[in-house]
Structures are given as C-alpha cells and as structure tokens.
Amino acid sequence: MIYPEQTIEIARNLTPPSAEKNANTLAPHYYAGIANDSCWMFKFISGPINAYSLLSDPEGKMFNPKSIVAIQLNNGPIIQYNEENLRVMVGDDLDAIESIQWKNYLQAIKRYNRNSGKINKK
Question: 97: helix, coil or strand?
Fold first, then answer.
C-alpha cells in the first residue's frame, strides 16, 4: 500500500487505449492529483474557485459531485468543501448565494467563476 503522506503527486494516463497502440502519433495525457493528508485530490474545476475531487475523472457526464472534497479561492489554501466555507468564498455574489440556498454547491462554484470572469473583463 502507498499512502498520500508517502507521495507528492499521483497521475492517471487519460490517453485512450486505442491511441496508446499508436504511440508515435499521440503523446500520453496525464491527469495529475495532489496528495492530501488522507487522500489524493484531483482538480476538476479551475477558476477563481478551484474544486478538488477524490475521483481521477475530469468533469463530464459520469462525474459525481459528491466526490468533491476541497475548494480553493485563487491561490489561497485548499480547504474543506462545505457550505460554510463556500459561502465565505462567494461573498456577495447573488447568483452563487442563490445556488447555495438550493444546496447546489457545484452550481454555486460555476456561477461564481463565471461571474468573476465578467467582473474582471469590465
């Protein structure tokens, strides 16, 4: 067994098996995770608020939002993913607050990130 405290990083090769057979034309594509004290985490949302999952699958059709374990505002510390911490991060963003009230935390992160981009472009 290898435990997170014994590693710096872990990665999963996302290159499809069919592409691996033709290795001369396609370089491997790795999805890197970071070690936490009790698990490995994989960043699956990047933006003003980053979100980290226990799963090594980038967000897609099969992604399970219940696998989110941590969030990070800008380059700040990575902290536990919960309603209280998320509320502090989104501040007074009304769209994100509305999503939090409906207990849709993933949507709150996406709305905040989208709205932050609009503010920065003005």
Answer: helix
Eight-state DSSP code of residue 3: -
The residue count of the chain comes to 122
Helix (H, G, I), strand (E, B) or coil at 4: helix
As a whole number of angstroms, the distance between CA 82 and CA 69 comes to 8
Q: Helix (H, G, I), strand (E, B), or coil: what is residue 22?
A: coil
Alpha carbon distance 110, 105 (integer Å): 9
**Separation between Cα atoms, residue 83 and residue 96, nearest integer Å:** 11
Q: Tell which phi-psi region holds residue 77, choosing left (phi > 0), alpha (psi between -120 and 50) or beta.
A: beta
pLDDT tens digits for range 77-99: 999 999 999 999 999 999 999 99
The reported pTM is 0.79
Q: For residue 30, what are its two tokens?
A: 């790795």
The backbone region for 17, taken as left when phi is positive above 0, alpha when psi lies in -120 to 50, beta otherwise, is alpha
